[in-house]
Amino acid sequence: METFLHRIDEVGAQERVARLFSRSIKKESKIHALKTVLSMIDLTTLEGKDSPGKVKQLCYKAAHLHDQFPDLPTVAAICVYPTMVPVAKKALRDTGLKVASVATAFPSGMTSLSYKLEEVKMVVDAGADEVDMVISRGKFLQGEYHYVSDEIAQVKEACGKSHLKVILETGELVTLDNVRFASDIAMAAGADFIKTSTGKVSPAATPPVVLVMLEAIRDYYNQTGKKIGMKPAGGISKAKLAVQYLVMVRETLGQDWLTADLFRFGASSLANDILMQIVKQSTGVYQSANYFSID
After folding, report:
1. Out of 132, 184, 192, 273, which one is annotated catalytic?
2. pLDDT tens for residues 219-252?
3. What is the spatial distance between Cα 187 and Cα 216, in angstroms, rounded to a whole number?
4. Best CATH choice for the domain 25-289 from the list 3.20.20.70, 3.40.50.300, 3.30.479.10, 3.30.360.10
5. Given the residues 61, 156, 165, 231, the one annotated as active site
């Protein structure tokens, strides 16, 4: 586990965020940015009341999000609970959309490693293209860093060819130093993506946390030549904030990361706001949120 503790200047991180978020974007660039955000969204339903009908409806939304605007990109993926993976795979057949599944006793991660690995194998066998695992935050906060690293490595092996997103649950890590260290551990252990949050804990994705994780990815790339993806999740429902995050990604990591292969948004309602903003930029007229399918 080749990681070391960084000391993050929290005031400095806030200042860098403020500077990046103050950048203005011209109209033509804004429309391109909105389309890029749309292509990066993982439409998500992770509720105890999820049913096959609800998941099918979400998949229909993903496939027909903007039938009236055929030149727009599709979202990147649908993210569901493990038992809903077969439903989503069938509903999205021949659409090209990916299916992501949370696993490892999401959102708490409070179960045995053997159970976590069985759950990962279950969703992979069901056809999940991507697996979103949660780290053991209790172990991390107790200083059991090798346990956290080994767990991620074993989950990565169980994923086979499916991509692994490692959720840090940054709202429970307390400090930016911990966010940076957890990011380093996850990447060194085999994460394809590092992800801020489950969306079940507040705060979820925050600009300073996202910046620190992007800087960790930058440094890891400079050291290893390996590109790791990033996914902020939770609390991102407005187009303006999503575009500001794109600016942060471009300024921190460069143009190569402005693709769904390396950057995603975990969201449920963001897509509707993006579509509203695209219509506004194109026609000068706002549509109501109800103009687009809600679920």
Report:
1. 132
2. 999 999 999 999 999 989 999 999 999 999 999 9
3. 9
4. 3.20.20.70
5. 231
